[in-house]
Amino acid sequence: MTLSRRRFITLSACALATPAWAETGRWKGYAFGAEVSLELRGAAGLIEADLQAVIGEIRALERRFSLYDPASDLSRLNARGEGALSQEMREILELSHRVHAVTGGLFDPTIQPLWEALAQGGDVKVARDLIGLDRVTREADHIKLGAGQKLSFNGIAQGYATDRIAALLSARGYDDALINMGEFTALGGPFRLGFEDPEAGRLGAVHLNAGAMATSSPSAMTVGGETHILHPKGGAPMWSTVTVLAKGAGKAALADTASTAFCLMPRSEIATAKQKLGLSRVYLVDVAGNLSSL
């Protein structure tokens, strides 16, 4: 058996056995407004460089997409209404447009003015009228928002960051890893992951093998009296929790967007969208705490 030079990694996840040739690097900090703990296990003499590479990737993505940093690319775009289109933002927008189309517009990153109106006591009707991803225009290296629009990537950025870190670590030789940046990606596996509902508690577990898992629970947080997953068209969430599994590399962002939108969709429409998006499994928890799957 041939071992890669860095075989084991854990980011805010379960512990793995550390072979004699390995050492552990740990870091705690903040990313996208939340506390993050990070642990890598790998070859002695190399682990610190790997750890710093992951931290560097997290910081680079924050400079692109953080709403908490007024100097980030996203904050400047929201303030000015237009700006340069980075490769990372292009990739996020391409996936956003794809899921927006498949979900009938229920995944829409132009939701930010509505969030701000609810949080600050603004005019909710005016803010809701600003929603519409079709009004965002992109050229080769430039993006322009519709009048009054702002973007939020809260329904995709964590998944995208998970994918980017997984790709970085795979390129550095990790082949048995569980990455958790709010959503999960498994390199190798299987890893046993539980899923739970804010009201019903732990409801089960899945085995994740070379794929991604994302969970959304609308009632986990509220803003202005509404759940934090806002309906672009004025409806209400239909599910208490949605967990989405997707097979293959680079699928955490897709699972993230899908789990967000599926909270707002009836079961029949979720089944159709699941097939169109190529997802492997969807777990649904209704408001009574009943679990079902597609």
Secondary structure elements and their pairing?
Layout: E1 8-10, E2 22-31, E3 34-43, H1 47-65, H2 73-80, E4 82-84, H3 87-102, H4 112-120, H5 124-129, E5 137-138, E6 142-144, H6 157-171, E7 176-180, E8 184-187, E9 191-197, E10 201-208, E11 211-216, E12 222-223, E13 226-227, E14 241-247, H7 252-262, H8 267-277, E15 281-285, E16 291-293
Parallel strand pairs: 1-7
Antiparallel strand pairs: 1-3, 2-3, 4-6, 5-6, 7-8, 8-11, 9-10, 11-14, 12-13, 14-15, 15-16
Helix pairs in contact: 1-6, 3-7, 6-7
Strand content: 25-35%
Number of helices: 8
Characterize the largest beta sheet: strand count, sense, and whether it forms a barrel.
9 strands, mixed
Distance between the termini: 38 Å
List keywords for this structure.
globular; 8 helices; disordered N terminus; alpha+beta; 32% helix; 9-stranded mixed β-sheet; 294 residues; 16 strands
Question: What would you say this structure looks like, in words?
Answer:
- The chain has helices at 47-65, 73-80, 87-102, 112-120, 124-129, 157-171, 252-262, 267-277, and strands at residues 8-10, 22-31, 34-43, 82-84, 137-138, 142-144, 176-180, 184-187, 191-197, 201-208, 211-216, 222-223, 226-227, 241-247, 281-285, 291-293.
- A 9-stranded mixed β-sheet has the order 2-3-1-7-8-11-14-15-16, covered by helices on one side. It has a 3-stranded antiparallel β-sheet with strand order 4-6-5.
- Mean pLDDT is 88; it is low at 1-8 and 12-18.
- The protein is built from 8 helices and 16 strands.
- Helix 1 runs antiparallel to helix 6 (157-171), helix 3 packs parallel to helix 7 and helix 6 (157-171) packs antiparallel against helix 7 (252-262).
